[in-house]
Amino acid sequence: MKQKVLVTGGAGYIGSHVVRQLGEAGYDVVVYDNLSTGSPKSVLYGQLIIGDLANQDQLYQVFAQHQFSAVLHFAASLSVPESVEHPLDYYANNTRNTLNLLRCCSVMGVNRFIFSSTAAVYGEVAQNPVTENSPTQPINPYGRSKLMSEWIIQDYAAASSLHYVILRYFNVAGADPNGKIGQLSRKASHLIKAACDTAIARIPKLQIFGDDFPTPDGTGIRDYIHVEDLASAHLDALRYLQKGGESQIFNCGYAKGYSVREVIARVKAISGVDFPVVVTPRRPGDPACVTACADKINQLLDWQPKYNDLDQIVSTTLAWEMQQ
Ligand SMILES: NC(=O)c1ccc[n+]([C@@H]2O[C@H](COP(=O)([O-])OP(=O)(O)OC[C@H]3O[C@@H](n4cnc5c(N)ncnc54)[C@H](O)[C@@H]3O)[C@@H](O)[C@H]2O)c1
């Protein structure tokens, strides 16, 4: 019999790639999404239920109607500057709604849980690459809302039969190489998307937020992971839990950092457009450099990334943005 899984936020950017891979792998998928940033056209497999995680009654009904073998929880708000401005909204949507979902899992006896966390839980890191045991000192409400969710999941797992995998994503970019799905949210301000949008003149000029960081060229350094590889990590995590694996936290990145200026140079080279760039002050809550140590996920999940190349990340993003 097909395994049925619940995917919250499955109409969003990352969730929709995971839904597509789950569908291709033969899972029966139910997506629960309020469409605040997601789109129904991104859901290529399964059933889409439009609903908000804050609506606990609707959530219970969904759990009662289906027998889920696992929950994959993507739904969240994820802009760092917005979280600085509206922290309560972030604690409500990210932390409280994770609690709502776990309550349903508890009452309905679902005991496998995969959670979308973030490198933002590490904050200003003292040493790169960051391992899963590095100190977690988030420096913005977004990171804190996610770290609190991790603690809730861990505390509940310690007191129950729940087994979890927490995936801490580094900087996610790229799109489906077949061009069917990609980043659609108008709110998304990620560097590679913004640079591609500038290359195709959707944005007049690209902003660099700070060039006075303690990095070789003064701009922030990040570890960019292709969304397809990140999606496959979720299927690996699901199989791991289904085989009875212990609860784990994994970094998801390629263990390689690129500065903002390096990324812009690749986007300019690949697009062939020398678009305008302006330097503006640092944004509150942006650390200088964050790169992942990915040894643990490689070893324990035997994760096999296929797109760990900045040019592939840029070219799939550019191709996607050009067709929007
Ligand atoms: N994109 C990144 O670079 C990145 C990095 C680290 C972690 N993450 C995490 O990955 C997850 C997915 O991010 P994404 O980039 O796909 O974002 P996204 O905005 O494209 O997707 C989020 C989805 O959740 C839905 N949603 C939000 N709040 C909801 C609610 N209360 N009830 C029901 N649905 C709701 C939205 O409509 C959307 O479809 C998030 O948890 C985010 O924190 C993303």
SSE order and pairing:
Elements: E1 4-8, H1 13-24, E2 28-33, E3 47-50, H2 56-65, E4 70-73, H3 80-85, H4 87-108, E5 112-118, H5 141-158, E6 163-169, E7 171-173, H6 191-199, E8 206-209, E9 221-222, E10 224-226, H7 227-242, E11 248-252, E12 258-259, H8 260-271, E13 277-280, E14 289-290, H9 295-300, H10 310-322
Parallel strand pairs: 1-2, 1-4, 2-3, 4-5, 5-6, 6-11, 7-10, 8-13, 9-14
Antiparallel strand pairs: 9-12
Bound molecules: nicotinamide-adenine-dinucleotide.
Descriptive notes:
By secondary structure, this protein is of the alpha/beta class. It folds into two domains: 4-173 and 223-252, NAD(P)-binding Rossmann-like Domain (Rossmann fold, 3-Layer(aba) Sandwich); 191-222 and 255-322, Alpha-Beta Complex (UDP-galactose 4-epimerase, domain 1), CATH 3.90.25. It has helices at residues 13-24, 56-65, 80-85, 87-108, 141-158, 191-199, 227-242, 260-271, 295-300, 310-322, and strands at 4-8, 28-33, 47-50, 70-73, 112-118, 163-169, 171-173, 206-209, 221-222, 224-226, 248-252, 258-259, 277-280, 289-290. Strands 3-2-1-4-5-6-11 form a seven-stranded parallel beta sheet, sandwiched between helices. α5 links the parallel β5 and β6 (163-169). It is globular, with a radius of gyration of 19 Å. The structure holds nicotinamide-adenine-dinucleotide (NAD). Nicotinamide-adenine-dinucleotide (NAD) binds at residues 8-9, 11-15, 33-38, 52-54, 74-76, 78, 93, 97, 116, 118, 169, 171-172, 185, 190.
